[in-house]
Amino acid sequence: MVTNDYIAMNGNKFSKVGEEFIKKHHKHDVKENQCSSSLVKHIKAPVHLVWSLVRRFDQPQKYKPFVSRCVLQGDLQIGSVREVNVKSGLPATTSKERLEYLDEDEHILSMKIFGGDHRLKNYSSIVTVHPEVIDGRPGSLVIESFVVDVPEGNTKDETCYFVEALIKCNLKSLADVSERLAVEDRTEPIERM
């Protein structure tokens, strides 16, 4: 499904490059009672800027519009736990999340939700940021994939639709913040040979 440059990947193909990134970095063990998808966003900002926001497991509110507050327990490292307060309007107020993987060189972050007053049980996500050229300038291809249990009373399609809507909002906000920072940074165009 393609909408505005968000591409939901639940079995559909979109490009060889993106497909390879998904095969390499976005592996989820999807069980029968779960749904999974990958979403793609092209951002007109260089990888270092986008990654500087994504990698901050301790400060998701820098770009995630539904997060009002985040408290990290301990130092920022694999295994770190954060408690996130969610803004009103969503069917939740808190979420407890653990940083599962953080690769600064490959620009990969993975987290799991293990508590909170919401219906996202066994939720796990992977976010990767990849360099690309957009309009002759350094840009980023961001891929976020997830797997989550389908709550009782919901279908796989309903569950995926809800989670994809949240991720799309987060990715749009990530693009807005990153692109604003890129304009302030005045990133130079890439010269083509």
From TrEMBL:
Organism, scientific name: Hibiscus syriacus
Keywords: Abscisic acid signaling pathway, Cytoplasm, Disulfide bond, Nucleus, Protein phosphatase inhibitor, Receptor
Listed GO CC annotations: cytoplasm; nucleus
Lineage: Eukaryota, Viridiplantae, Streptophyta, Embryophyta, Tracheophyta
Protein's name in the database: Abscisic acid receptor PYL10
Cross-referenced Pfam families: Polyketide_cyc2
Similarity comment: family membership: Belongs to the PYR/PYL/RCAR abscisic acid intracellular receptor family.
Signal peptide interval: none
Top-rank taxon, per record: Eukaryota
Chief location bin: cytoplasm
GO BP annotations listed: abscisic acid-activated signaling pathway
PANTHER family attached to this UniProt entry: ABSCISIC ACID RECEPTOR PYL9-LIKE, OS08G0374000 PROTEIN-RELATED
Annotated GO MF terms: abscisic acid binding; protein phosphatase inhibitor activity; signaling receptor activity
InterPro entries registered for this protein in UniProt: Plant_def-hormone_signal, Polyketide_cyclase/dehydratase, START-like_dom_sf
Subcellular localization(s) per the UniProt record: Cytoplasm; Nucleus
